[in-house]
Structures are given as structure tokens and as C-alpha cells.
Amino acid sequence: MRNKYFIFSILSTLFLLLLSGCSNQKDTELATISINTDSKYVSTFKDLNLGTVLDFHFKLNNADKSWVDLWVESYKDGQLESNSLTALSYGLSPNKVEEGNIGFGIIKTDAESFAFLYGPSVKATPQKIDKIQSVAGISGWDYAIGDKTVKLELNETYLLGVYRESKGDSMRTYDLQDENEVKKMIDDDHLVYLLKLKIHNRSN
User: Fold this and answer.
1) Strand partners, 140
2) How far apart are the first and last CA of the chain?
3) pTM of the prediction?
4) What pLDDT, in 10s, does the model give residues 64-92?
5) Residue 86 parent element (H or E)
């Protein structure tokens, strides 16, 4: 129980540091996203040895008319689990533009592991998951988008990042921007978590 209170307090503190206001810039694209390896989330997790987090800088124009779905699919030995590992939906902001951090992380303690999602001014309750990293295999995290800023389109599903555990003592690399390569990775590995995002319109 003490571990759980510690985890919630850490996440709450980081969340307050990353609260973002609106931007007044006028852009033509719906939204943009880029990896953010030097964020406060990433550095704090490294400094405190809490686990691992994939962090992104996300900007959404027309935020007052848009809805964002962020979720993590879980695959075990090639099979999709019935429920998302964790999910977060938000939108219809009072601001026309929303800009800030979004991401997915896993907090590891001696006895438990927790998965969590967050977005600009929102966060999901950390979900307890099976202890990560298989005994026989190895594990790894990867961003699924490149180093450049990516423009996002309406009603398109985007793969942002991956956590995986191998079946053996080796792990090969895959092109995460190739759908067939991602399917092969799911079949080859013991455990795969896929972080995905989709933007769509929703009327008030």
C-alpha cells in the first residue's frame, strides 16, 4: 500500500509540472507530435530509477472541436488481450489550441508494476499489471516515430511507441512504421505493448 501512495504522489507531482496552457499560434495542420526524450518525466524516471516512460510533445489545433483517444494494446504470444492495458480519452477543450506532453510509462517496484498514460492537463489512473520482464527473455522500449515532427490527420490511428519482451535470450529489431513488420514482431515476441493515438471530431 505504501508503494501505491508513493507512485501516485510522484505522478501527481510530475503532472503538475507538465500542465500546459494554450498556444496562440495559427497553424494549418490538425496536430503535430514529436518524441521528447529530454522531458521532466523522462529525467525524473531515470534519476529515481522508477521505470521507463515514452514521452512526446503534442500540439492539437481545433482542440475545442476534437477528441483524442490514447490507449495501449497488449499482446501475449501473438494474441491480442480482450481489454486495453490502459486507455485515456479527452477533448472538446475550452481552448482552441492545446499543447503539452503525452506519454506512456511503467513504474516498477520490488513487488508490483503499474502502467499509466497522460496527456496535456489530463492523466489516467495507474493500472496494476503483471510484473514486467520475463525470466528467460529480455525486454526493450522503442519510439515508433522518427526524430522529426510528425503531422497527424483526422481519424487515422498512429503507433507511437512499443514495449516488448522476447521469448528467448535475443531480440531483433523491426521497422515500426511498417505494419507487416509490427505484425511479425507481435508474433515473434512473448509480450508486446503498443501505444496508439487517434484524433476525431465530436460535437458538443
Assistant:
1) 164
2) 40
3) 0.83
4) 999 999 999 999 999 999 889 999 999 99
5) strand 86-91
